[in-house]
Each structure stands twice: as C-alpha cells, then as structure tokens.
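ENTRY TYPE: paired fold submission
RECORD: A
CONTENT: sequence, then structure tokens
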Amino acid sequence: MPITREQFAEVLKDAYSAYYDIADDAGTELPLLFRADYKDRDEHYWFVKSATVWVNEKNEHAYVFSAPFFDADSVKACVDYALADGLPRVRPHKEHQCTNIKVVFLADRADDAVRRAVKKLNFTKNYKFGLWGYTNLLAGITDLTEKKTVTNMAGHDLEPFFKKLFAVRE
C-alpha cells in the first residue's frame, strides 16, 4: 500500500522539526506546505571566548511543496517563489559560509519531463567573491507512488534522506 501525500508530509514535517524552525507560510497560491529554517554557528577560541580563532555560520531555508502532480511551469513558479523569499533572508558577513535554499516537491506522480526539469535546476550566488559565503539551490522531487526521489546536482543529499523516511514509514 503506497503512502499518501498527507502521511508523508507529516513524517517529513516531524523530521524537519528536530533541527529546523517550522513556519507555516500561508497566503500564497502555490501549494506550499511549510518553510523550515536552520541556523548553525560553530566557533573555536583560544583559552577564552574573546580570543576567537575562527567562526563558521551555515544556514538553510527549506520550502516544501505538495501537490498531486507538478508540471515544469509549476516547478519553475515554486522555485522562483523560494528564491524570491529566501534570498532576502541571507545575511552575508565575514563569518558566513553558506545559506542554502532547499526546495522539496512531494507528488503522487512525477513524469519524466518534470524529473528532467528538476535535474536541470541550478542557482549559485557568491557574496564578495565568495569571501563572505555563498548560496546554492538544492532541489528534489519525490514520486510517492514509485517511492523515488530525483534531485539536482547540489541536492544529491536529499535522496538518501528520503530513502530513510520511506524506510521509517514502512
């Protein structure tokens, strides 16, 4: 028996809520379920905190969209919305390493044209020639009928993550 989108969306929301701050962004005509924000700051200091050796900040903004079917135009509209909403949230500075924008699509069925469109998605932005960090677009679509995930090049870590979620659900 295949998992329904609503059940998998709850499993996904529970998985993200462990490390991410969940925000229910309503008010858009797109099938946005929720946005999840992650912030991480690592620092190393010498004997006292005022003698900082290095600091590293990593952030991520994940946008989860759910619909029975996505076509190439709706995928582009969702990605454009995520980039327009996520890029103003980036605060580059000298301790900033990266802020990734992750777009996840949950679909009952994904055809080959949509899979190719997701594979071709690409966005990278450097701040001050990369000295103040960068932003990448991580994207993936999950076909719940076949239990298959297709990602773009930057989002290759999404595939094993979704395999684990399918294993947890079964």
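RECORD: B
CONTENT: sequence, then structure tokens
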Amino acid sequence: MKYLFGSLILSLLVGHIYAQKTLMVEKIGTLRKYYYHVGDPMKLKVSKQDTLLRGKLWSLGDSMIYIAELRPFEVHLKDVGSVYKKFAFPRRLGKMLIFGSAGIFGIIVVDHLINNEPVFTPDLFIIAGSTMGAGLISLSLSQKRCRIGNTWKLKILNIRVF
C-alpha cells in the first residue's frame, strides 16, 4: 500500500514538472494532426516576409513560435503561411533507390567492359534510369505542404498531466 501511494504521489509531481507546450497542425474536419515539440526539426513559410524558415523549434509562446538554426527567429502564428511535414520512410526509400541506381549502373558498366560488349546499351539506361526515377518520385513525395487557412489550422496546446 505504501508503494502504491508513493508511486501515485510521484507520478502527480512528475506530471506537474513535465508540463509542456505543443504545436499542433490539424486539418479541419478530419482526424489528421501533426505535433511538434521543442527541439523538433521544422520547416515553414512565413507569408508576410515570403520567407522559408528551416530549423529546430526553439520555444513556444502563447501566440508565437521561435525557429532557430543559429539564433532564434520570432514568428507569430497568424504570419505562418504553410508548414511542411516530412515523412521519413519515403525519404529513406528515395535515397536508397538513387544510390542503388548508381550501383546498378556501375555493375552493368563493369560487366559490359569485362565481356567486351558495348558499354552504353539500352538495358543499362532502362534499368538504372527507372530505378533513379522511382527514387526521385519517392523523394518528391517525402514532404507535404500544409497551407494554413481554410483547410489547415495551427494551434499551440498547453499539455499538463494531472
């Protein structure tokens, strides 16, 4: 009983200590939500200055966010035009396919040189080129632009565990 009571009090104290603010990008009318915490990498477009900011989320205020690469840059929530969400799997897959196409290209060229065949044949460009094309398509699909306005909304949540 003492251990249960002690762990309950400890969890309540830890909940108050670790309360944090969270930046949420949500699509209105759906269940799509993306969360950003302090220290997460972020890319956004500020509409007034027409500037693309890329860096880590430095801190969150009530109506402001701070993005920093070297020094913090202050951005009001109403000035954010769009937020770019990155997806890790298509990015990794695209990089692997591009490096794989370079490897396939090298292997086929070496094979043609060893067998005294013409080096540049149509099969070389079809196989290596289609693999590189699939990698470039995957890289282009690894990032999603969420335009803040009618369909996407930006909020700062104050999360407390209690």
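NOTES ON RECORD B: The mean pLDDT is 87. The chain has two domains: 2-83+147-159, 89-140.
STATUS: closed
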